[in-house]
Every structure is written in C-alpha cells, then in structure tokens.
Amino acid sequence: MPRLRRLLAIVVVLAAALVGAAAAAPTPAAAWQALEPGQLPVELDLAPAKAFPVAGPVHYGQFAASFGGGRGHDGQDVFADCGTPVVALQAGEVVDNKYDGAGGNYLVVATASGRAHVYMHLRTPARPPIGASVQAGERLGAVGDTGDAWDCHLHLEVWTAPGWFRGGHPVDPLPLLRRLQG
Ligand SMILES: [Zn+2]
C-alpha cells in the first residue's frame, strides 16, 4: 500500500521535526549560560524590574575603562561625582560585601536567575550586609575611588549564572546601562 506508506513517512517526518524543534528551544537559563562574553540580549532578561545604578549624571569610561579594555577588564566603569548614590540594578541577595586592594569596597548581589551584579570602588563599605535582600533601586552605597581607582566611578560587572567566580562569565553591561538610561 504505497499510499499508507507515504502517510507513514509524512508522520515520521513531522514527528522528527517536532522533536527537533523541542530540542532546539533551550530554556532561558540554559540559553543564558550558553552566551558568549559580551552578549546581553534583552529577551533573556528574566526579572524585568531594573534601575539605573547611579543616581546622578554619569559618563561611561572608554577604552581601558570599558568592558574588556584590552586588559581583561570584566566590567564597565561609570564615572560620576564622588558620593553620588549607587543603587541596586536589580533585586537580589547580597552574597559578598568586602574590601580588597583592587575593587576597594565592593558588593556582589546574586539575582533570582543566578546572575551576579558586582559594584566596586564604593566610597564606604556598602550598606546591606551579606544575606540581605535588596530591591531594584535600593541604595547600596556611594560612588567612590577606593581600591585601584584613579577617579571616582562605579565599576559595574554583570556575570551570567551561576555567578561571580562560581562558573559564570562576565558580559558587557553597557547595552543594558544605555537601555536603562533611556
Ligand atoms: Zn573598572
């Protein structure tokens, strides 16, 4: 029965196409983890509420102060007057709040999707302690020049899941910053 065989062949092809489509559609988390450094597509924003992280006039660092910077610079420098409030880009949990010679006073916030936002060179130790929940727009501290910084700026890093030095990798925050700045 050639007709039945042809029908069967069509069914098999359709089933294969469906399986292929299902396999080709990654979950948002898997898609996020598969990103190459420097990519930050809007469609993978899992938590929409976001705030521009510096509450005042800014200018973006270029060249060595941009992402990569020809020196493995893992963030974008956002220059602002010393003391300008730094607020949380997105809600999450504080997973690190320390000082070191490079980052100065710095804070790491893990978001619900497992990304990490890193805020560095804060003027004084950041307000929320490790374990605290922060909301988008909540004040974290102030722009400073602590650590290895030549001028007051926020050094902002965005890491994919599972986060900062936990297997994630840094992505360029600048497209997101420009979008938030409107
Ligand atoms: Zn920097």
Output the CATH class name of the largest domain. Mainly Beta
In angstroms, what is the radius of gyration? 21 Å
Bound molecules: zinc ion
**Class inferred from helices and paired strands:** alpha+beta
DSSP strand content = 25-35%
How much helical structure, as a percent, in the residues? 10-25%
Please give the largest β-sheet: 8 strands, antiparallel
Which sequence of SSEs, written as H and E, runs from N to C? HHEEEEEEEEEEH
Instruction: Count the domains.
Output: 2
Describe the structure.
The structure is a single chain. The protein is of the alpha+beta class. It folds into two domains: 2-32; 35-181, Glucose Permease (Domain IIA) (Distorted Sandwich), CATH 2.70.70. The chain has three helices and ten strands. It has helices at 2-24, 28-33, 174-181, and strands at residues 59-60, 76-79, 85-87, 92-100, 104-110, 116-122, 133-134, 139-142, 153-159, 170-171. Strand 5 and strand 6 (116-122) form a beta hairpin. Residues 65, 73, 75, 77, 155 line the site of zinc ion (ZN).
Q: Which properties best describe this structure?
A:
alpha+beta; Glucose Permease (Domain IIA); 26% strand; binds zinc ion
Can you describe this structure in just a few lines?
The protein has 182 residues and is of the alpha+beta class. It has helices spanning 2-24, 28-33, 174-181; strands at 59-60, 76-79, 85-87, 92-100, 104-110, 116-122, 133-134, 139-142, 153-159, 170-171. It contains three helices and ten strands.
Topology:
Elements: H1 2-24, H2 28-33, E1 59-60, E2 76-79, E3 85-87, E4 92-100, E5 104-110, E6 116-122, E7 133-134, E8 139-142, E9 153-159, E10 170-171, H3 174-181
Antiparallel strand pairs: 1-2, 2-9, 3-8, 4-5, 4-7, 5-6, 6-9, 9-10
The structure holds zinc ion.
Zinc ion (ZN) binds at residues 65, 73, 75, 77, 155.
